Automatic annotation (TrEMBL):
Organism lineage string: Eukaryota, Fungi, Dikarya, Basidiomycota, Agaricomycotina
Protein name: Cytochrome P450
Family named by the database record: Belongs to the cytochrome P450 family.
Transmembrane segments: 7-24
Cofactor(s) recorded in Swiss-Prot or TrEMBL: heme
Length: 505
């Protein structure tokens, strides 16, 4: 019996000693910890504190270690955070064999437990968004504008002629409008107007978000996802709508639009099918690829437009200069890419919205694929997640004048040397402006996001007066883990404009 006890104690002691040596020699130990202690066991407490107050902990780290590296605790790992031009540039320049973007994103969002492995073994749907889809954006704009007008009319219902204001809960309405307008160019008519399909597209997005901010330990996902996988369930729901269309297209059949006319398939689904069909990919995998892009598009764009609309409702004095600009651009060029490009104040409002609010506290997540040393001498062991402190950098007045204030037209006012104006566009990334990431992995959907968001905002601004109810003060944002969200149930008051309105209506 004594021998047995001694054996247990010996194993325990050996286990503790191995753990202590590994902890002591771990290169991550040399990186300063923010948010609590890095001692074994105590880092758990720090991780729990982080879950409740990520923003304060991140800002504390950035304040103490600007343009340097520090680490934050999560329940199952350390997250290494960098900031400053040089280190952001280093993340941009390192290849995926050293600091991998796909591996970083998949690990953060727990994709490997939720999705078909083949979707991420070959992410050709990302290349499709970056290439063929983006090249066709100018040709797609008439469809986008057509869908914007129909969707806004269906979702923001006000009475014309009287002086009444209608209160609208902005986030769900914007999710529906974004899902519908995106679906117009993702899957085309008539599916983009099928409310049940749009429900699935939005549910998929919300369920991926719920899963990845759930704070579950990485290893627990493996087990939980086997029995309860909301993403798989949502994909199956989407397959019911998409299978007949996919099979018809693969047979070479012609789809009919709402008026029964044959319709040319020039949408994202077709571009994905053109790659998937020769590979004999199953319908389920094709649908997951489409849903992945839906996820990337809907959550980000609906958050951004909700922030922008609540800002406009809080500062209705911004509406008149925006209307003048939008009306002038449309009068000159119609609803064309040239007109959208001329809407510089609108562009500035969107850029300022992403700078000030953004969609997350961190950006550019990368996974170290091997042991490496950053330019500031920080040693990063293989498997570590490295991210950029986006939120504190975007709010740093050393990098941008009065960065703590929301100033909608700040970028439109800036006079840049000839030919350099494009550097301040909504879609132009830089080491100091990273809401879309930066470098070759920067969001490939940002040009579509820009067209879509501008078309919706321009149409809303021309068609409605808007303001906030109550005390007229916008509710503060909500920070959930590393995500930034507009306050839930935020409402904006809309009133149809008696004079003016959208000239293209
Ligand atoms: C305001 C709207 C949007 C924001 C703020 C946003 C932001 C981002 C960010 C931060 C990344 C990761 C970049 C990195 O790790 O370096 C990303 C990736 C991505 N986004 Fe967006 N996005 C938006 C809209 C869209 C739209 C509309 C689409 C689709 C049409 C889209 C498709 C994608 C895809 C496919 C990726 C993965 C890129 C890759 O793996 O290389 N996004 N986005």
């Amino acid at each position: 019996m004594d021998d047995y006890k001694q054996l247990i104690f010996a194993c325990l002691a050996a286990g503790i000693a191995t753990y202590a040596v590994r902890w002591y020699t771990d290169p991550l130990r040399a990186i300063p910890t923010v948010g609590g202690s890095s001692l074994p066991g105590l880092s758990w407490l720090a991780a729990l504190r982080m879950l409740r107050n990520c923003r304060a902990v991140l800002e504390e780290g950035y304040g103490k270690y600007p343009e340097q590296t520090f680490k934050l605790p999560a329940l199952d790992r350390w997250m290494v955070v960098v900031s400053g031009r040089e280190l952001v540039e280093e993340l941009r320049k390192r290849g995926d064999d050293e600091l991998s973007q796909p591996e970083g994103a998949q690990e953060t969002l727990q994709f490997k437990y939720l999705f078909e492995p083949s979707v991420f073994r070959d992410e050709y749907h990302v290349d499709v968004v970056k290439g063929r889809f983006t090249r066709r954006l100018p040709a797609m704009l008439p469809d986008v504008v057509d869908e914007v007008k129909a969707a806004v009319k269906d979702h923001i219902v006000t009475r014309l002629g009287d002086d009444e204001w209608t209160s609208v809960e902005v986030m769900p309405v914007m999710q529906n409008i974004i899902a519908r307008v995106s679906s117009r160019v993702f899957v085309g008519l008539p599916l983009c107007r099928n409310e049940e399909y749009l429900r699935v597209a939005v549910d998929f997005t919300v369920d991926v978000m719920k899963t990845c901010v759930g704070g579950i330990h990485r290893r627990a996902y493996r087990i939980v996802a086997r029995f309860y996988n909301m993403v798989k369930r949502d994909t199956e729901r989407a397959v019911a709508f998409l299978r007949p269309i996919i099979e018809e297209r693969q047979r070479g059949g012609v789809e009919l639009d709402e008026d029964g006319k044959p319709h040319r398939q020039n949408d994202l689904l077709q571009f994905i099918l053109d790659k998937a069909t020769p590979k004999h990919e199953p319908v389920f995998t094709i649908v997951q690829r489409l849903m992945t892009v839906n996820f990337a598009a809907i959550h980000t764009s609906s958050n951004t437009i909700t922030h922008a609309l609540t800002r406009l409702a809080e500062q209705p004095e911004l509406l008149t200069p925006l209307r003048d600009e939008i009306e002038g651009s449309i009068a000159a060029d119609g609803w064309t890419p040239a007109a959208l490009a001329n809407m510089q104040k609108l562009d500035s409002l969107l850029r300022e919205t992403l700078r000030f609010h953004g969609i997350g506290l961190l950006s550019m997540v990368r996974k170290a694929m091997k042991d490496l040393t950053l330019r500031d001498g920080t040693r990063i062991p293989r498997g570590t997640l490295v991210e950029v402190a986006a939120y504190p950098m975007h709010h740093d007045s050393a990098l941008l004048e009065r960065a703590d204030a929301f100033d909608a037209f700040r970028y439109a006012r800036k006079h840049m040397p000839a030919g350099e104006g494009a550097r301040l566009l909504f879609t132009a990334t830089s080491p100091e402006y990273v809401p879309f990431g930066h470098g070759r992995h920067a969001c490939p959907g940002r040009y579509f996001a820009s067209s879509q968001l501008k078309a919706i905002l321009a149409h809303v601004i021309l068609s409605y007066d808007i303001k906030l109810g109550g005390d007229g003060v916008r509710a503060t944002d909500v920070f959930v883990a590393m995500g930034v969200l507009p306050a839930p149930q935020s409402r904006v008051l809309f009133r149809a404009r008696k004079r003016g309105g959208d000239p293209g209506q």
